[in-house]
Amino acid sequence: MSPIAKLAIRREPKQQRSSEMVAKVCAVTLELLRERGLRNINTNLIAQEAGVDIPSLYRFFANNEAILYHIAQEWLADIREVYDRYEQEPALLALDWRDYFDGLLRDWRLPGQYENYAALAGLWHVYPELVKLDRFQEAYHVAFFMRQFKRLGASGNQQHWKDLAVYLYHVADTVHEV
After folding, report:
1. Nearest Cα to 80, choosing from 92, 68, 88, 69?
2. Residues 116-132 pLDDT 10s
3. What percent of the chain has pLDDT above 90?
4. Which of 30, 61, 118, 142 has the least CB density, counted as fewest CB within 10 Å?
5. At what angle do helices 16-36 and 113-121 cross, to 10 degrees?
6. Separation of alpha carbons 44 and 52, rounded Å
């Protein structure tokens, strides 16, 4: 079994009650992570604070690392949905390049993103699985930006575009902070 498979959600919730329980576990885990730090949380504490019994938690997650991986995976998938919308909606594609990228940078700032990123920031380099997830996200981001640069007729060469896309990946979450 691959390391990532060990952290994957054990089963997708099918009923609304199960979906709500998984969402509650994730929200409580983020809150505890922000308040107490990684070393001070475990599945027992998460279950207790979420009002969930341990067997129910383990039905979906192998451990607290699996919960954190699921949170990161879902968060990054939400960001990719924003990219996809910007690549498919005719009204967005019709924007001039400044409005297009300004809107994209604004819209990928999802509710709670700063708090979630801050809570997860220290984990990106602790767990190899999260490093792989971050690399996948960066590759997705770079490919998206490369397509948009080409579509918009950017000047320069492919390496210049790639360097710019990587730079934006690493700094874009702070662009609208100032």
Report:
1. 88
2. 666 776 777 777 888 88
3. 50
4. 118
5. 60
6. 9
